[in-house]
Specification:
Oligomer: single chain
Order of helices and strands: EEEEEHEEEEEEEEEEEEEEEEEEEHEE
Distance between the termini: 38 Å
Number of strands: 26
Strand order of the largest sheet: 9-10-11-12-26-22-21-15
Number of domains: 1
Largest sheet: 8 strands, antiparallel
Strand content: 35-45%
Structural class: mainly beta
CATH topology: Beta-galactosidase, Chain A, domain 5
Helix content: under 10%
CATH architecture: Distorted Sandwich
CATH class: Mainly Beta
Number of helices: 2
Length: 341
Amino acid sequence: MDYASDRVSGCRIYQYQHRGLTHLCLENELIRVTVIPDKGSDITEITYKPKDINFMWRAPGGGVRETGKLIPTKQSVLGNNLDYYEGGWHESFPGGGPYKDGGMEQGLHGEACLLSWQFCVIKDTEQEISVKLWCETIRFPAKLEKTIMLKSGRADIYFDEELINLSEEKLEYMWGHHPVFGKPFLSENCKIDIDADEFTTAQGFGSPTTYFEEGYTAKWPSGVAKAGQSVDLSLMPKKGEKNAELIFINGLKEGALKITNTDLNLSFSLKWDKELFKCIWYWRVCNGLPGYPWYGRTYNIGLEFWTGYPNYAGAQENGTVKTLEPSGRVRTRFEVNIAGN
């Protein structure tokens, strides 16, 4: 398949190859969205055209890697996610951290973000475009189907997704969406709006620049840091201030978040079903995580909506692991809304 819309205005789709991987570009008058079906259906670009701003973070190392020519030096206990991770927005399924269950092993963020997804164009008109993507995970008997849609004249992205149990057994799973934001959108001028009850810091994150003790809980968004000062997590650290955190935000009043850059007069909003994706993982690395894999050179935040936390074993213990009946299905919708002036 080598697809290209027959027009150069309004909504359109075109397919191209980069570093050996198929890319799909979906765009309209206001936004451009680039998806890599060959690598997890990762979204590497969400660009707001009037300001030429791509919200998605690009990882160090030149972005997309040519997976067919990459041979990791050694199998990591985390799996191979970080060897192939180009940044942007990937889908984490069937688990968060590495885990083993029923004889099956999964690496960091599961299989879906490393597999090749198939795709087909559902609709291609000047007013609306939609693409369907799907994959079957290998070690876990499930299928993910996802449709992405744009409409003319709207800076919005609409997602419709279904998870299908392909087995005759009840399955336990974790599922998350992992959008990560970086420069030039992300800066000390950004503010995060989330209506939630509390946050808890992760155990064993291993950063020397965390503000808070491990396992610390406080009312979102502010808490008392190890050094005794009050820290507002809805604001980015000041320029030059190093920090790295992994935080779980719970008690969501709604499945929604918004990041606003007040200097750029630009905002990025996400809306989802909070009954399915009950919490947010807030991953923040502001040049504050030394050693592998970032070596202090990244400035990014991930605001990820997840079914549970803090990892597979932890989700089993705290009751946030999800179950899917034999041949069962779960359907969900979420959307992105961008506003700028």
